[in-house]
Amino acid sequence: MIKRYTLPEMGNIWSEKNKFQKWLDVEIAVCKAWNKLGKIPDEALKDIIEKTHIDDKTVERINELDKIYNHDVLAFVSAVAEQVGENGRYIHLGLTSSDVIDTALALILRESLDLLIKDVDRLLEVLKENALKYKNTVMMGRTHGVHAEPMTFGLKFALWYEEFKRNKKRLEDAKETVSVGTISGAVGTYSNIPPELEELTLEELNLKPEPVANQVIQRDRHAQYMTALAIIASSLEKIAVEIRHLQRTEVLEAQEPFKKGQRGSSAMPHKKNPITCERIT
């Protein structure tokens, strides 16, 4: 992610630290499930829950071990097992790497979707407010960029409002689709672990089980997620281009806010550029 354009909340969700935290969340959920099935003793589970953690030092240790093993999950498991000691041997019991990576990715995708849905809700409020505020504000309607018939500025906002209602539904559908995990072992055959372990683990993580998996969660789920993001990005770009057009000097029917102290150009101090809309585009 480009730091200048990354909002802190979303940046934290996709950080390396949060990725390893989600991996640990999956591992602990699996340990709890094994405990319920009588495979991990109560004392060992207590030890694992209390002693394992992800902080900057842990991330450094994982990366250090990864340089040796050339295997990120093995490096992760080794680093958190070191925190526990002897009972660390129960961590990752019966699992394959994809059980952890794919199930944790579902948690990260869901977390980021929750943030996006919250943002879309805020945008919907603004669009609705402005649709009502400007419902009687007359402006020139255009087709092919050329003056056509009069319309209202509020109509533009109403149009965008309806589009983002559909976009919110797309995000909600994507969240439903990606909120799926798998704990099925090597090649997805449950050869080393019982299906009951998967059921208990995913119940703990509030995820649905993948009906059929061949070790990995099928990527059409992630494709739906990315498609929803792409459609929303195109909606945002459409709005941004319209505002940029309305802010052109020879049109100048609307402008994005220009904060106190903001500068539009390093060479031309009179300029007020639509920089936020340009970033959106």
Order of helices and strands: HHHHHHEEHEHEHH
Question: Low-confidence parts lasting 5 or more residues at pLDDT below 50?
Answer: none
Oligomer: single chain
What is the overall silhouette? elongated
Estimate percent helicity: 55-70%
Distance between the termini: 16 Å
Radius of gyration: 25 Å
The major pleated sheet works out as: 2 strands, antiparallel
- Let me know the number of strands: 4
Number of helices: 10
Q: Mean pLDDT across all residues, rounded? A: 96
User: Which percent range describes the beta-strand content?
Assistant: 5-15%
* Structural class by SSE content: mainly alpha
Strand order of the largest sheet: 1-2
List keywords for this structure.
single chain; 281 residues; mainly alpha; two-stranded antiparallel ribbon; two-stranded parallel ribbon; 10 helices; 4 strands; elongated
Q: Describe it for me?
A:
The structure is a single chain. With 281 residues, the chain is mainly alpha-helical. Helices cover 61% and strands 6% of the residues. It has ten helices and four strands. The protein has helices spanning 8-13, 16-36, 42-51, 56-69, 72-84, 97-133, 153-178, 195-205, 220-246, 275-280; strands at residues 138-143, 146-152, 180-181, 208-209. Helix 7 packs antiparallel against helix 9 (220-246). The radius of gyration is 25 Å and the shape is elongated. The two termini are 16 Å apart.
